[in-house]
Amino acid sequence: MRTFEKTFSIPQFLPITAKEWVSQTDTITVGREKECMVDPEILTEKIVTQNKTFLVDLKKNQAGFYLKVSEWSNSKKSSIFLPAEGIDRMIEILHQFKSRIADNENTKDPELGAF
After folding, report:
1. Is the keyword DNA-binding assigned to this protein (predicted)?
2. What's the rounded Cα separation, in Å, for the pair 106 and 110?
């Protein structure tokens, strides 16, 4: 069995090393002999749009709650992690963007250009 090891420079609320972020197991193998605990999902929502799939997971570890947003596109996966204290600000930003898009669709705002 071939194993991989990835080292991440990430905030304290996440594991330091992980083979990959897996949603269906509590433990993953890192390298040949190490194991790393993966935080279980508390809630998961799936978004499918165009050729991309997004999973939004609410998770909790010793440092508290956080969101994990994963994107699959053309067989590639990437994820971002947002600590709980950043969720309100992220929601504000998304509402601003959504409002700006709706305004542009109604007025064809030249500042935004054509989408």
Report:
1. yes
2. 12
CATH number, domain of 39, equals 3.10.450.700
Closest residue by Cα to residue 57 from 47, 48, 69, 65: 69
Tokens describing residue 33: 């002999």
Q: What is the spatial distance between Cα 91 and Cα 75, in angstroms, rounded to a whole number?
A: 28
Instruction: Specify the number of domains making up the chain.
Output: 1
Query: Which DSSP state fits 40?
Result: P
The reply to whether the predicted model has a pTM over 0.85 is: no
What backbone torsions phi and psi does residue 43 show, to the nearest 5 degrees?
Answer: -140, 145
The model's pLDDT over 47-101, given as tens digits with 9 standing for 90+, comes to 999 888 999 999 999 999 999 999 988 888 999 999 999 999 999 999 999 999 9
Q: What is the pLDDT of residues 8-29, one digit of tens each?
A: 444 444 444 443 444 433 444 4
Cα gap 111→103, rounded to integer Å: 11
CA pair distance 81, 72, nearest whole angstrom = 15
